[in-house]
Amino acid sequence: MELFVFLVAGAMVLGGGVGVVVRSHPVHAALSLILTLFGVAVLFVAQEAHFLAAVQVIVYAGAIVVLFLFVIMLLGVDNTENLRIEPLKIQRPVAAVIGAGLVALLGMAIIASRDAKPPVVIPSEAVRDAALDPHNSNIKALARDVFGQHVLAFELTSVLLVIAVVATVMLARKPKPGEIGPLVGEGGAS
User: Fold this and answer.
1) Which residues in 27-153 belong to E strands, given as ranges?
2) Contact between 152 and 54 (Cβ < 8 Å)
3) How many domains does the chain have?
4) Which of 25, 21, 13 minimizes the C-alpha distance to 69?
């Protein structure tokens, strides 16, 4: 039975991953991503990591992909727009300043976290927590691990998701015939 669940979930993950890359319509690619995320959730359940499976479905398949779909639908991928006309002329300089500020803030946080000592967990405290509430002990250990040792990876993942949304916006913009597209080398100029 375990082998069957693994093979089905693996097929879901691989099929969804291929669908994300191969599909040309952004909505279909996002739906393939949902298939991939559900397959990963099934693999988490097979490993008895129920909390991670719930987080996978609720946060990633439920919230992040819905955000992607919202951005895709909001942009109207079938509509063309003039890329030379900017509704707010100051938006690019402000975005550059905010981006530089966020990079500086992230750099300062990384430098400050190097000097900080990690919280000391007394083994007897962890044992006591597990004895008092065995269901929450794994969640507390996961929280200590994610927001302790792996906080940089956790924050970089959030930055990656923001970059993915911005990339979706840029790729969904379609130039009018004769204009250069949002990426270098694209466009209908002939």
Assistant:
1) none
2) no
3) 1
4) 25
- Give the CA radius of gyration of the chain: 22
Q: How far apart are CA 27 and CA 59, in angstroms?
A: 19
pTM of the model: 0.46
- 70 falls within a domain: yes
User: Any idea what the CATH number is for the domain that residue 5 is in?
Assistant: 1.20.120.1200
Q: How far apart are CA 48 and CA 134, in angstroms?
A: 15
Please check whether residue 77 is in contact with residue 172, taking contact to mean a CB–CB distance below 8 angstroms. yes
Classified as helix, coil or strand, 8 is helix
Measured in residues, the chain has a length of 190
> What residues contact 13, with CB distance under 8 A and at least 6 apart?
36, 39, 40, 43
Residues 24, 22: Cα–Cα separation, whole Å: 6
115 occurs within a structural domain: no
pLDDT of residue 83: 58
Q: Does residue 99 sit within a domain?
A: no
The structure tokens listed for 97 are 């300043």
Q: Which domain holds residue 4?
A: 1-79
- The pLDDT tens digits of the residues spanning 99-143 come to 899 889 888 888 877 777 766 656 555 556 655 666 666 777 777
